[in-house]
Every structure is written in C-alpha cells, then in structure tokens.
Design brief:
By secondary structure, the protein is mainly alpha-helical. It has one domain. It is built from six helices and no strands.
Length: about 120
C-alpha cells in the first residue's frame, strides 16, 4: 500500500478546492453558459457528438496543469461542457451550466488517483 505525503496531499486538496471555486466563478459570470451555447451550435445537425476521453494522458495532463496553476483555458472548459451532455437517446438535449458543473465533479472524482499521482501525493 503506498504511503501518502501529507504536505503534497494538502497542496493537492487546496489546489483542487481553488480550481473548483474558479469554475463556480466562471459559471456565475456566464462564461460556461457561452461555451454551452457554442457547443450546442456545433452539435446541431450532427449525428455523433464528441466528448473528451478523460482517461487519455493528454487530458489528464491538461487537467493536472490547470488545477496546479489555477488556469481555465477554453479547451478545458469546452471539454467539461461536452462531457456534461452526451446522450444518444435524446439528441436534442443540450448541455447546461449545471450539467457542466456536475461533469467537473465527476471527472475530478474519476481521475483523482491519476491526478494525485501527478501531484506526488503517493510515495
């Protein structure tokens, strides 16, 4: 069983809390709503919707650097919005800000172990 570096763990938790707070601020400012509308316009008329594969190393690294440096590039925000609503049962249903916020929590929870490895929490 891997040991845990308490200082790195604290750093990880603080960075994650700060990142999620930054996402909430962008939601209140309407940034996520704008991206939701852009994604809905892109998807209009398409049969297959795309969404990031968060298990892929590229996305894990992007998420790690954004959490670590408290950055919010449009590519990452659009990835969360695209993840918010991917359904084949109702293609008219478009992503919402609330769905994007839920997607942030789900992605961070699912990729927690990989992100903590990158932060150096495990010794």
């Amino acid at each position: 069983m891997p040991r845990i570096d308490d200082d790195k763990r604290r750093e990880w938790l603080r960075a994650l809390r700060r990142f999620k707070y930054g996402i909430k601020v962008r939601a209140k400012l309407g940034v996520l709503q704008t991206i939701c509308e852009q994604v809905a316009a892109e998807r209009k008329g398409k049969q297959v919707w795309d969404a990031p594969s968060w298990e892929h190393e590229r996305w894990v690294t992007l998420l790690y650097t954004c959490i670590k440096d408290n950055q919010f590039p449009p590519e990452l925000l659009a990835g969360f919005v695209k993840t918010a609503e991917v359904t084949f049962l109702s293609p008219r249903k478009q992503p919402t800000v609330e769905g994007a916020m839920d997607a942030v929590n789900v992605v961070c929870r699912e990729q927690s172990k990989a992100l903590r490895h990158k932060f150096g929490v495990f010794i």
